[in-house]
Structure prediction request, 736 residues.
Amino acid sequence: MKKISTLTLLVVFAFTAVAFRIQDPAQKLPAVDVKTLDGKTVNSSTFANDGKPMIISFWAMWCAPCKKELNAIADVYADWQAETGVKLIAISIDDARNSPKVKPYTESMSWEYEVYLDENQDLKRALNVNMVPHTFVLNGKGEIVYQSTAYVEGGEKHLLEVVRKVAKGEKPE
Amino acid sequence: MNKFFVVLAGACLLGGGIQAQSPNMGQISGNFQIDSRYLFPDTLINAPNVPEKSVLNGWGQLNYVNGKFSAGVRYEAFMNPTPDIDPRYKGQGFPYRFASYKGEQLEIRLGNCYDQFGSGLIFRAYEDRGLVWDNSIDGFQARFTPRKGIYLKGIWGKQRAFWTQSAGIVRGFDGEININEALDSLTKNWDARIILGGSFVSRYQIDQDPTYELPVNVGTWAARANIMWKRFSLYAEYGYKINDPQDGFKINNKYVYKPGQALYLSATYSQKGLGVILSAKHIDNFSFRSDRTATGTAMFINYLPALTKQHTYILAAYYPYATQANGEVGAQAEVTYKIKKGTKLGGKYGTNVQFNYSVAHALDTTSLNDTVRLMGYTTKMGRWGDSLFFQDINIEINRKINQKLKLNLVYTFLRYNKNVIEGKANYPIIDAHTAVVDVIWKINDKFTLRSDAEHMFVTTSDDNYFTHNTHGNVVDFGHWVALTEELTIGEHWYVAVMDQYNYGNYESIRRIHYINGQVGYMRNTTRIVVGYGKQRAGIFCVGGVCRFVPASNGFTLSITSAF
Prediction:
């Protein structure tokens, strides 16, 4: 009996989740401190890109699909920026085991992104990131308009389509 | 309890309704995850008989934010827990709730708190759902920034221990100064950036031991420095713990009164195309828990991650390492190099090469053979003993062949001391050679096939072992081969089949194919995965914590979502 009530609760929860999704309130970035690779503290509410779209991508050194996605985008990032003005912010959720490796890795891979460390996972929690990769696209007003929690090979093309639409002020999907 | 659910569900819907009308009423968000299994007993692979047949782990979290105020609750259900996690999680309820205020300079939080000081050497409270790990501190937390570049933090409370709280009270304070931020006019022209920090954490726990006199307050402190100059960066942190006799570290069944210490060093160099990291650590009696009677991996206050490469391929990750908190000396070197595109070696798109070497040994100790208020042994900082705990030499090469093909090659040679790492006896040092070929073939715009073939050859350099071993010349479970085929269909679907074949097992009836199939659907923030098959026993690690996962056979269903 207890099990049934638990399941009921989870189902109610899931429906509530769907209800919220339908309403689609304009979710904005929370105000949480993260660190730059130079150890400076930056508040996530200050992330901005002059009214142009932003991609916020959560990743980790141990996450193979995350690195595949960000390396694939790195190859075409200059083209994306020229076309849509998009800025990509890569948030590493690595802890002390791997966080010292983030700077050598991202620089050796020539990522031109803004990279931040979320070692205490405050931003990850505030944005309800369950697992990585988890990618957000924000419109020029800083509203989250698209999310994705997986990377499939070539998926960066779909992401570019989304960014193009967002840059034009259209709905992404 | 049921009434509470109704109220909560009502509050969710009401909150949603209000939110739709007026954005000033704040914002509700959350996430949801269930992992459920239907299990069959399977004696051949030692999958235990699970009497309840179907088991479920579930989480649901709601966060509310309104300007500077936020609050949240998390519901968790382990009804009953899946056999791979600690059975003490059995139950359901709301183990996590908080309310917080974050102003410009001051942040205050009540309820369940997460934080870490420095690298976590003496304090880290965090949640990792992959490991079903949550050691949040239930109490008060404050973060204060009196001026730019100066960060003060404090935490005070009791640590979560499954469905209750551990015996001790944890109190911690941390201060950090970023010299360049704090003195920006003075340091404007500096090439160097300097960050200094220090922390103090204490645990209070009453002493009810009939024979021993145990410290009721155990204090630890740590000091750290991070210096960056041009392309170089150096991080150093030293920690000290006063005598902390505990059940998790006894010598000849007696409490050890020796104080603990730990040193962690890491140096990096990075430029476009090249990254280098060298790190080292010395850990001596540095397990710090919120309850001195806790053993295993529960109730840690501090965090001591392994200085090794975190492998992602299944056979490469077969023998993972976990820091031996009671004593070890370890070192790691890693070089990441990008061979330029358009060169002979680099090919049209460039080639990434990563080399990693890591090693961990016992401390070099001299036994004191004392019997009263045991100090146990003496050791010198940085000197390692003869006993090898772990070693891993590996190389990973990553290359895009053309628009359709990508190739990833991994070779790893690791040496694994099963007796120390898993608490077993009479195993030789296991030498495992693993090769991985991972090919990604983008068939067309809709279909992508990832094929991953792995082989692990297991042996030992201890010839003596083979003459005394009743398993013939097989070490541990012997050789393995694994094959994964993963087909992604469009943006939203994938199908995967995986076979791990233990062809080198010493018992011919246990030379089994562990075949597993999965179908997954992903859309926006929702992911639904259905699977069926056999799962081999193994050790699963994230960060510094590992857990043993028993073999299983059955159906799995997992759903995650966020909103």
